[in-house]
């Protein structure tokens, strides 16, 4: 197609790719004077490609108007039957189908120029209402799917009117149709309603999100054909242009989805995830535990002597220490990412852990855990974060007055190392040197750590209990020593508030997420981040390491959860379905499942391997800030701002899941309507929102929150 060639040659010339231009021209036997001016879209009969003709320079890019829109033929399976060359910030590539548009990360003005249109502003309401009428009158099976178009079309038509300065039309369009949108878009619509002039759109983030990330709709081929036929017959080009330009329609073959199936999955800022996004292989299995010997006798005196050295060197393998010898088939290679070596003290801790595990209570519907609630009384400083050490010996609170407070919850007081002068007097050779270096005089139940200059939103103990992380509104993450109770490092990478931080289950690595919409992976001995995970369209509100430390889950205010690969920084899963910002994440102990909680009061359960939603737990009436699986994964505990802790039967929730190939391919999820059968118990506090949950090594459930007196 000669015209397409002309367009590509022009693009090459503009990009100063002279050599490629020469080669292509020789191949196509085109002369130099065939080129000139800008590029505009015109009608063509070839399916799958927009033909391109030259227009005089200075006329800007004219987008396909009513006269010049090509017929909507072509192969609908390849997304979109034609390609529009609009907006700078687009580059052209030659594919097997001719010209394909690739979008770079554009700047605002380039993004907005895509709204240069010549549609009649007074007809927008008519276009929209005729489409609405058509969808509402279509068959039930198609209606649910096509109704997904209402919201993205509404937003783009409104923005197009505003951009072209038809303010009164925009206002009346908004007034007339904003009430028809689904309730979970209310917050977005509130932001949208404040954009009433072209100037407002310039620096607006919401605006940019909407323009740069195509809104994804998953629709069956039948419904899509129906829509296309309707728009063709009606010559409704304005709407068709928006569908082409701003929406990504993920077409699947098979039965259309029901209203329930669609409602379960939609609601995020940019629609659903493309099916491709959840296809990558994820190694969700656990790493093999290192093998070492565990003394079998029940002499707890050894256990009490925490600082003692492990006595045995590694004689014949004993029983308990060597868990399963077999490598989990779904586990990542042991050396996929470098993990820190186990120190002697870590091995001792593992031995203690195994002894405790031997006495662990097996939980289930017949045997629920006891719950011990730590209430922060008179927390007028404003409690904003809590964490509890793995062995449940210490609890930390982050506060709005920018302090971090650490309590001992065992009879052992918190002791710091003596001053340098006192240390020089100690006999270094004595057996109990580790005891002698601790200063008994300053021992206390509470230590306060000063250093942040804003509310502390996240705290995390290292697995070996030597360090503590805290992140704050001041944009820093701080690493504190629990030997000296002083700040060791301030990590500066985020320029805005940091909402959450967490240590890897193996220590050394940690993750942080904040208002700048990215999560960062750090190592304690590097002051720069090792990985930056970018992709969310709004704040990253919570972060969690997978039990094998190869993956990180992030929850965001864009109402999606993403799973990132630590090795290469890729996003390997995108989960949509929550109707509000995500505030809590928990991986099941076997690494196969993820539970997420949000401001919509629902807990959603995800199968990581298949990339599917497998359950929905309804019951809470407010934001869920805490989720935790019991040590063997039989029970999921959730804690909420509605002042309750709820226990759910995780075994039942995950048994006989339908994850056949069809479901995986099309996302036809059938959520069982039995969340009440899975609810094992609800426990009210008097007036304390639950902000943290923790299962001890013996499966006692600890919960924490600050009493609020309203």
From TrEMBL:
Predominant location category: nucleus
Domain TFIID subunit TAF5 NTD2 intervals: 119-247
Top-level taxon of the source organism: Eukaryota
GO-annotated cellular components: transcription factor TFIID complex
One Pfam family per UniProt: TFIID_NTD2
Presence of keyword Coiled coil: no
Stretches with biased composition (Basic and acidic residues): 317-328
Stretches with biased composition (Acidic residues): 294-305
InterPro entries referenced in this protein's UniProt entry, alphabetically: LisH, TFIID_NTD2, TFIID_NTD2_sf, WD40/YVTN_repeat-like_dom_sf, WD40_PAC1, WD40_repeat_CS, WD40_repeat_dom_sf, WD40_rpt
GO annotation terms (biological process): transcription initiation at RNA polymerase II promoter
Residue span of region Disordered: 294-346
Compartment(s) of residence: Nucleus
Ranges for the WD repeats: 376-417, 449-484, 491-522, 533-574, 575-608, 617-649
UniProt GO molecular function: RNA polymerase II general transcription initiation factor activity
Record keywords: Nucleus, Repeat, Transcription, Transcription regulation, WD repeat
Biological function: The TFIID basal transcription factor complex plays a major role in the initiation of RNA polymerase II (Pol II)-dependent transcription. TFIID recognizes and binds promoters with or without a TATA box via its subunit TBP, a TATA-box-binding protein, and promotes assembly of the pre-initiation complex (PIC). The TFIID complex consists of TBP and TBP-associated factors (TAFs), including TAF1, TAF2, TAF3, TAF4, TAF5, TAF6, TAF7, TAF8, TAF9, TAF10, TAF11, TAF12 and TAF13. The TFIID complex structure can be divided into 3 modules TFIID-A, TFIID-B, and TFIID-C.
Subunit structure: Homodimer. Component of the TFIID basal transcription factor complex, composed of TATA-box-binding protein TBP, and a number of TBP-associated factors (TAFs), including TAF1, TAF2, TAF3, TAF4, TAF5, TAF6, TAF7, TAF8, TAF9, TAF10, TAF11, TAF12 and TAF13. The TFIID complex structure can be divided into 3 modules TFIID-A, TFIID-B, and TFIID-C. TAF5 forms the TFIID-A module together with TAF3 and TBP, and in TFIID-B with TAF8. Component of the TFTC-HAT complex, at least composed of TAF5L, TAF6L, TADA3L, SUPT3H/SPT3, TAF2, TAF4, TAF5, GCN5L2/GCN5, TAF10 and TRRAP.
Family recorded in the similarity comment: Belongs to the WD repeat TAF5 family.
Protein name per Swiss-Prot or TrEMBL: Transcription initiation factor TFIID subunit 5
Gene that this polypeptide is encoded by: Taf5
